[in-house]
């Protein structure tokens, strides 16, 4: 009879512990993806037309019946209410993995081939007119509001889809704990293609039946303390350049709550995705106060006002230090690479800091398992200020790697082994 030795026991425990912390191989992703997944809340997606970015809201379901078969429902809404649908896409087909992402370690590029079905429903007169205008009756299709149209093998000129071709979508898959991530290319809402794969992760999907009991405000206050909440990867974030034009930037965030009423947020900026080195670090410290309940976004979320009372900037390379030192405003010491400068209360127009810059943001906080969410950034790259510019949706998550996500299955294994 096989008796488990202490050595075996130790080895199994070590393997389980390692499993909890390392990033996935493709085989592990394939094993973990088989589940039904959904958005936590409505997600803010940019709809860029001409020179302007408009907010649009999206809800996604992705179900994987095997490591290659999927069915999906993607609904886009006109506004945060989640009641005015614009377009729904429903489909079934196959996912084909195409190799590792070279910008997000542990993520795999993939192609979704809607080979079994692709059904599109338009919910606004505007869309119906635009789709019919492009369609010109091709493949016998006349778009009718709220009527599902099977386009599996048919042309949809409005979406660049041709007759006898299946709808194809390119994306990436990354799984960490019980969260499934897909990617985004930029802040203009461009779809990924074979040649232009995603550069960052978007808000995660959670298992369909993984609803948590929402935290009360007191529980939330307690839960966020003591954590070091960090970006999983470099994030694709909307910002504005000196001319006020929307640009894609790459940043990581590290948020800590110094006390029940103060926070520190470190934003590290990178020139691009992948293995690039940072050029600037900015730390904001200040008090935060809780505002109203945000359960219209997701149960357990609360709005909070984050004020800025201290500001520090560190150039992370010589070039950045030199750039900052060009036209240095009076009263600011020259910058040095790697040296943190205290810019609290200083004006620095080149960095967008003037006496009438907002000194707070109307943000939001939501916490579940080992993840913390703030509010999605406005699609135009501006600030969450004033209150009217709230986006009413979750941004991608920050993780506290020190906190276990309480993977129940692994935990049970561990307990069983310990009892042997
Ligand atoms: C995904 O699975 C859930 C049940 O787990 C079901 O309610 C939902 O309709 C499915 N969605 C799709 C797009 O297949
Ligand atoms: C999509 O799937 C269909 C059916 O399996 C297949 O015939 C077709 O070649 C696939 N398309 C691509 C681009 O892989
Ligand atoms: C930075 O400057 C502000 C305003 O002068 C001051 O209150 C703060 O203590 C300074 N921070 C440090 C770390 O010295
Ligand atoms: C460390 C820090 O910033 N502490 C501040 C926390 O907030 C209060 C006001 O709410 C300040 O008085 C502290 O200095």
UniProtKB/TrEMBL annotation:
User: What GO cellular component is one of the record's annotations?
Assistant: plasma membrane
Please report the name of this protein according to its UniProt entry: APCDD1 domain-containing protein
Per the UniProt entry, the signal peptide is 1-23
Biological process annotations from GO: negative regulation of Wnt signaling pathway
Top-level division of the source organism's lineage: Eukaryota
Q: Which residues form a coiled coil?
A: none
Query: Which UniProt keywords are listed?
Result: Signal
* InterPro entries in the cross-refs: APCDD1
Q: Supply the source organism for this entry.
A: Paramecium pentaurelia
